[in-house]
Structure formats: structure tokens, C-alpha cells
Specification:
The chain has 141 residues and is mainly α. 82% of the residues lie in helices and 0% in strands. It has one domain. It comes from Lacibacter luteus.
């Protein structure tokens, strides 16, 4: 039987993930900077973006830890999911009630979604690369 070798993420996928993260966050922030809204509204959307990014990374970590047999408390796992869903709901409610054009609302929703997805991919790549690096060191010893 042939042994499957874990090579880790490719440099192209790592670069694409980081590019998507930078593009998503930058687009969202440029949109906020150019938006004709009060500073407190801009702060709300900025905070929701940061909250969503952190929550999505926490979900990815908790799910991955469970798959690898690393103990994850039920409260952390549940809170990670709750916070991710809460960030999406907060953005949705904020955009629903905002006095913005539909195209602007769509822009914020899509750049937010791209940022969350890319944050998960970057975190996954970072973890995979570390594991591959550790396995390579172990094999050399």
C-alpha cells in the first residue's frame, strides 16, 4: 500500500489566500473611508469586521482541534460558532437598516464574506505549514 505524503499548502494557495484577505479587508476599509455616513456608523462596521474575522478564525481552530483529537471545551466551541453567527447577523441587520444604495450594501456584504473566508484559509494554511514543518524536522532527526 502506498503511503500518502502530506506536503502542506502550496505557495500559490498561500499567496491567493493572503491576497484574498488583504483585498477583502482593504476593500471594506476603503468603502468605509469613502462612505457618507457618521463616524459612529463607520466604527460599528469596522468593529463588526474585526469581530467577524476573529470569530471565524476561532471556529476554524476549534473545528480543526477537534478533528485532530486536541481537547476543545464545549463552551469555547459553542462561543466560537455563536460569535461568528452574531457577527454575520450584526452586519446583516446593520446593512438592512442602513441608508445606503443596494449596490453599497452588496459591496460591504461581499467584502465582509471574502474577508471571513480568506481569514479561515490563511489560518488553515498557517497551521498546515507548521505541521508540515514539524513533520519534516521529525523525519530529519
Amino acid at each position: 500500500m502506498e503511503q500518502k505524503q502530506n506536503l502542506g499548502p502550496s505557495p500559490a494557495f498561500i499567496a491567493a489566500s493572503w491576497l484574498a484577505l488583504v483585498v477583502g479587508i482593504t476593500a471594506f476599509l476603503i468603502g468605509l473611508f469613502n462612505a457618507d455616513m457618521e463616524l459612529n456608523e463607520k466604527g460599528y462596521y469596522f468593529t463588526v469586521l474585526l469581530f467577524g474575522l476573529f470569530a471565524a478564525i476561532s471556529v476554524q481552530k476549534a473545528v480543526r482541534d477537534q478533528l485532530e483529537g486536541i481537547p476543545v471545551t464545549t463552551i469555547y466551541y459553542g462561543l466560537s460558532w455563536f460569535c461568528t453567527i452574531a457577527a454575520i447577523v450584526l452586519l446583516t441587520v446593520g446593512l438592512w437598516n442602513a441608508d445606503l444604495l443596494r449596490s453599497e450594501k452588496g459591496f460591504y456584504a461581499m467584502s465582509f464574506t471574502l474577508s471571513l473566508f480568506a481569514a479561515i484559509a490563511v489560518q488553515k494554511n498557517t497551521r498546515d505549514a507548521k505541521q508540515t514543518e514539524a513533520k519534516t524536522k521529525d523525519e530529519l532527526l
